[in-house]
Write a structure and sequence with these properties.
8 helices, alpha/beta, 266 residues, 36% helix
Length: 266
């Protein structure tokens, strides 16, 4: 069983592939459960054009649902809802999504860790950004509107591409353990994102160490996605990651249909 629940089409600002082509590619790759989850990053000022993008993505996916020989899910990746919670709610209610990914890409003072010059920062500045990022992850879980929390080590992906040596996510382990306990309490899933396997970091986001810690904290709800923006990346890294999850002790993988959790046995 091949499942990939984090993918982006042309309706994402950084995507380029039409919905129909991604669905045809999913069929060709033998993917059994496939979710398209285009970006909708929330800023302080409402960006109404995001609504039309997400609505168009949903409508195109919905029109193809019955034509595909696999489970096709219409989702959204809702980024940093804390920047404007009321607009985030508006986004979530614009269509009856199957699946909502809660994510964070920013921190106080920066729009995205992608743009951060890590090598120019003092240790104090870098730790302040990383701690603020984790604070925002906590906010997303407390808010509780998403189905899964995405790529929780996102900043470390770009840190690995810099000349700096560290810090490592392990240096934030007490905070991650607290986050995992909150996820368990709120019955919210944790995403394992395989995009890091294609990047210099060379690990899933989060990696095996943190996934083991999540399991130790009682976490059992896992979603998985390639975070593909291109056809060639769809499904990448997922079979080997599912094997790693089984080794840790996980027995099932979750996905969401009409916002209801479903599970596949590993």
């Amino acid at each position: 069983m091949l499942i990939d629940c984090h993918n982006h089409s042309i309706h994402s600002f950084d995507g380029s592939v039409p919905v129909a082509k991604m669905c045809e590619a999913a069929k060709g790759k033998g993917i059994d459960v496939f979710a398209l989850t285009d970006h909708c990053d929330v800023t302080e000022e409402p960006q109404e054009h995001l609504l039309s993008c997400i609505e168009s993505a949903y409508d195109e996916i919905f029109a193809l649902k019955e034509k595909m020989p696999f489970t096709l899910l219409a989702g959204v990746e809702l980024g940093q809802a804390m920047n404007n919670p009321s607009f985030a709610e508006k986004i979530m209610s614009c269509r009856p999504f199957d699946f909502v990914i809660a994510s964070v890409h920013d921190a106080k003072g920066i729009s995205d860790f992608y743009f951060l010059d890590y090598d120019a920062l003092s240790d104090e500045e870098l730790f302040a950004y990383l701690n603020d990022y984790i604070d925002r992850l906590f906010w997303m879980v407390q808010w509780g509107k998403g189905d899964t929390l995405a790529h929780i080590t996102y900043p470390f992906r770009y840190l690995a591409e810099s000349a700096r040596k560290g810090p490592d996510p392990k240096e934030f382990l007490p905070r991650f353990r607290e986050l995992f306990s909150l996820l368990v309490k709120r019955e919210m899933a944790l995403e394992v994102n395989t995009s890091g396997l294609r990047q210099k970091i060379g690990k899933t986001l989060p990696d095996e160490f943190l996934l083991t810690e999540y399991y130790a904290c009682g976490g059992r709800l896992i979603t998985i996605g390639s975070d593909a923006h291109y056809i060639e990346d769809m499904g990448k890294g997922i079979p080997e990651t599912l094997e790693k999850l089984k080794e840790i002790g996980f027995t099932e993988i979750s996905y969401f249909e009409k916002r209801n959790r479903k599970a596949l046995l590993l």
